[in-house]
Amino acid sequence: MPRIGMEPIRRRALIDAAISAVGERGALDVTMSDIAGRAGVSTALAHHYFGGKDDLLFATMRHVLAALGAEVRPAIAPLSGTERVRALIRVNLSPEQFRPEIIAAWLAFYVEARRNAALGRLFRIYVRRLNSDLMSGLGSLERMDAIRTAQGIAALIDGLYLRRALGEGVADASGAVSLVEDYLDMALARGGRDG
């Protein structure tokens, strides 16, 4: 007989196990059985809750994006201008977000979003939201400069995640933040404003 109230706990355990397994082995090498074992549930129960690995990866990335959003919203709400952009950079590259297992989940997300329509839609939502948040803080720049700067910041964030997933590039969150803020400062100087 199922225990009442266990479903959300088991779902979260499976999501945490998926993050851990993907971080350790990569998305293509992980099976539902591996993830279920890490979560302490049967493979059948994992399939019952999520259907298959693609569905679990989707739920995992929704969880990762929700956690990111929960950090972003309060960090940027009281801010405007370039301080808002700096807060976005700091949150997107925070120690919580720049952990190896989260980075590996993002790498799997980037790859799987190309072949999985649901993940592709989720990725496009993330991209639009990040762009909108960045643009809202770059109003001191001419529109085309703001667009290019927002695209550059987003590309740097994604690139830092990709390089870190491959064991290259900046080793820690503070170095990553510093690199992207240097880019922002150069873009602001090029725009003739210091924000």
Automatic annotation (TrEMBL):
<keyword id="KW-0238">DNA-binding</keyword>
<dbReference type="InterPro" id="IPR001647">
    <property type="entry name" value="HTH_TetR"/>
</dbReference>
<dbReference type="InterPro" id="IPR036271">
    <property type="entry name" value="Tet_transcr_reg_TetR-rel_C_sf"/>
</dbReference>
<keyword id="KW-0678">Repressor</keyword>
<comment type="pathway">
    <text>Amine and polyamine biosynthesis; betaine biosynthesis via choline pathway [regulation].</text>
</comment>
<dbReference type="InterPro" id="IPR017757">
    <property type="entry name" value="Tscrpt_rep_BetI"/>
</dbReference>
<dbReference type="GO" id="GO:0045892">
    <property type="term" value="P:negative regulation of DNA-templated transcription"/>
</dbReference>
<comment type="function">
    <text>Repressor involved in the biosynthesis of the osmoprotectant glycine betaine. It represses transcription of the choline transporter BetT and the genes of BetAB involved in the synthesis of glycine betaine.</text>
</comment>
<dbReference type="GO" id="GO:0000976">
    <property type="term" value="F:transcription cis-regulatory region binding"/>
</dbReference>
<dbReference type="Pfam" id="PF13977">
    <property type="entry name" value="TetR_C_6"/>
</dbReference>
<keyword id="KW-0805">Transcription regulation</keyword>
<feature type="DNA-binding region" description="H-T-H motif">
    <location>
        <begin position="31"/>
        <end position="50"/>
    </location>
</feature>
<protein>
    <recommendedName>
        <fullName>HTH-type transcriptional regulator BetI</fullName>
    </recommendedName>
</protein>
<dbReference type="InterPro" id="IPR009057">
    <property type="entry name" value="Homeodomain-like_sf"/>
</dbReference>
<dbReference type="Pfam" id="PF00440">
    <property type="entry name" value="TetR_N"/>
</dbReference>
<dbReference type="GO" id="GO:0003700">
    <property type="term" value="F:DNA-binding transcription factor activity"/>
</dbReference>
<comment type="function">
    <text>Repressor involved in choline regulation of the bet genes.</text>
</comment>
<dbReference type="InterPro" id="IPR050109">
    <property type="entry name" value="HTH-type_TetR-like_transc_reg"/>
</dbReference>
<feature type="domain" description="HTH tetR-type">
    <location>
        <begin position="8"/>
        <end position="68"/>
    </location>
</feature>
<dbReference type="GO" id="GO:0019285">
    <property type="term" value="P:glycine betaine biosynthetic process from choline"/>
</dbReference>
<dbReference type="InterPro" id="IPR039538">
    <property type="entry name" value="BetI_C"/>
</dbReference>
<keyword id="KW-0804">Transcription</keyword>
